[in-house]
Amino acid sequence: MPHSWLYTLSGLLVGFLVGMTGVGGGSLMTPLLILLFGVKPQLAVGTDLLYAAITKIFGTLLNRHHDVVRWRIVFIQMAGSLPAGFLCLIFLRHFGPSPFVSKLITEVLGVALLLTVPAILFKPWLQAWSVAAGTLRPRTVDALTVFLGVVLGTLVTLSSVGAGAIGMAALTVLYPRVSTRELVATDIAHAVPLALLAGGGHWLQGAVDTVVLVELLTGSIPGILLGTLLAGRLPEDAQRWFVGILLAIIGLRMI
User: Fold this and answer.
1) Range of the structural domain that residue 133 is part of
2) 20 to 30 A from 151, CA-CA: which of 116, 142, 188, 227?
């Protein structure tokens, strides 16, 4: 069993990245738990989901104080993500803790990480393309936002990955005139109810390590508060390439 300070340090670093960029929660923490600490895949996903939910509550409270959350976008995403997450929990409950589920989670996690890489690296070009392409009709944007919620609800429940980078990239395309700070805050706020639902479902199935969860939170809560305060102040290009290359390496390792 690793020393508790290693979990706390991991929570601190990942919480900082989440607060600053909206990326890095499940994308980094779940692979860390599996590859570095040897935690079983479903246990790693369930623990990370509750870790992410509680961590992002603190980030959302701070963002709400600064009035940078677009709540309408959050609620539209929830219309797709929560039903999709609930259906995935029923699927996992049906098969139970089996080698099939462990393999499925590991492969979905690897694919989600590899999808995350271009979402991070090409975000500025996606935003520029979206602005140049013109504004979609409001109803079309709403429908695509609900569909985005369905995709994220499925990915997050099965792998704990997707709400950060993939969600941010899609929101950048759908809402190109909303500032990066507001999109990060909105993405974090949407992740809270989704991660609570998915994490709660995993917990009911016995797939959460509460000791590890507490140790991760000890570091992640101050980490996300610090990262939220520094959001938008550090070079975005450096952040993007560092996280993108790191996730590409981890994604290839998971598959």
Assistant:
1) 4-254
2) 227
